[in-house]
Design goal:
The protein has two domains: 187 residues, Periplasmic binding protein-like II (D-Maltodextrin-Binding Protein, domain 2, 3-Layer(aba) Sandwich), CATH 3.40.190; 131 residues, Periplasmic binding protein-like II (D-Maltodextrin-Binding Protein, domain 2, 3-Layer(aba) Sandwich). 43% of the residues lie in helices and 13% in strands.
Length: 366
């Protein structure tokens, strides 16, 4: 009888302890167990609701299928989601993402939950129009420097990384020893270089606007005289370098070079010493997201140290998470090692973008 009474008392005490808010439970998934005790109950509740929602839809212009294949199992495990839970990822060109989101928010028929895109003026416009959910990620405390630098808005969006367009080339077809943007001028014969097709690439145009803070009109006039090919996708830029169509890409992506080099290419790039524009890949949840709880889990996961390591390693995204150590510093260096061009995107609106587009066209397609 004494043993039975003791067992009953132990069971009651254990149940009471497990019921106390903030204490880890035996069945807690890793994300809950690793969270601050004060946040655990909220995460448990969010996971339960996400399981009911059953899926999350995520659109972006960067994450390749191979990267997705590595991220998804870790996301599912982190929150203990069942195999029936679906992550519907759509990779699209930047303008494709913008068009789709604008259509959905305009019609009110929203099917997308989470979006990541490196177009701060566009995202700021969505925030102003009330189309972005007010949500402070549980990972936000690690991104205070990014918010201070204007790369994010704490209660609305946070960059899951940053990327830049830089000079790239194939050393098998040319020898380039330059270290700055100006060293590109005259480095190759006319017609053997590609550049970002700014009028048809939102990020290409924003990159042009940022580099105009560093390089004057005479520089771009000289660049236009080199008769460059206009390319939208950086994958195509890299492909043209590999097959010898071009000798250089003025605005190539280290991430795409990483992926081509992993398949046997030998492409190179420089991080210009005179300055780099870092485009923050803003991650946010649409205000009318059909799966809001699952969306918050996905956003939190993409900003976690674990996911940042994958994005840095596979996509060469520069993490803006405080204290992050890049697993691939040659392609995705520490943000503090870069000479960044300051850009206040809060002051860039439709009129400024229209003027920049017109200026680019007057230079390259007069």
């Amino acid at each position: 009888m004494k043993f039975a009474a003791a067992l009953l008392l132990t069971t009651l005490l254990s149940s009471a302890l497990l019921a106390r808010p903030g204490l880890a439970q035996a069945a807690d998934p890793p994300a809950v167990a690793a969270a601050d005790p004060a946040d655990r109950d909220a995460i448990r509740a969010r996971i339960a609701k996400a399981k009911e929602e059953g899926s999350v839809s995520y659109w972006d212009a960067i994450i390749a299928p191979e990267t997705e294949d590595e991220m998804l199992p870790l996301f599912m495990k982190a929150y203990g989601l069942p195999a029936s839970f679906k992550v519907k990822h759509t990779l699209s060109p930047t303008l494709g993402v913008v068009t789709r989101v604008d259509q959905e928010t305009g019609s009110g028929n929203v099917t997308i939950d989470v979006v990541s895109l490196a177009s701060a003026p566009w995202v700021n416009g969505l925030v102003k129009a009330g189309h972005v959910m007010t949500y402070t990620s549980l990972e936000a405390k690690h991104y205070d420097k990014a918010y201070a630098a204007g790369l994010g808005m704490k209660d609305h969006y946070t960059p899951n990384g940053g990327y830049m367009f830089v000079p790239t080339w194939n050393p098998d077809t040319m020898d380039f020893k330059g270290k700055t943007w100006k060293d590109v001028l005259g480095a190759i014969p006319d017609g053997r270089m590609s550049i970002n097709d700014a009028p048809n690439s939102a990020t290409g145009l924003l990159s042009y606007m940022g580099l105009r803070q560093l390089l004057d009109l005479d520089y771009f006039k000289a660049l236009a005289k080199m008769k460059p090919q206009f390319i939208v996708r950086t994958e195509q830029m890299a492909e043209r370098l590999v097959n010898g169509q071009d000798l250089m890409a003025w605005g190539g992506s280290p991430g795409r070079l990483l992926q081509y080099n992993a398949r046997g290419a030998n492409l190179k790039f420089i991080l210009p010493e005179d300055g780099i524009l870092l485009l923050g890949n803003a991650t946010f949840i649409l205000a009318k997201a059909p799966h809001p709880n699952a969306a918050k889990l996905w956003m939190d996961f993409s900003l976690s140290a674990e996911a940042q390591a994958i994005l840095s390693k596979r996509e060469a995204l520069v993490s803006v998470r405080s204290g992050f150590v890049s697993p691939l510093p040659d392609y995705a260096p520490a943000i503090d090692s870069l000479k960044l061009i300051p850009m206040d995107w809060s002051k860039v609106g439709p009129e400024e973008i229209r003027k920049a587009k017109a200026e680019w066209q007057s230079l390259f397609t007069p």
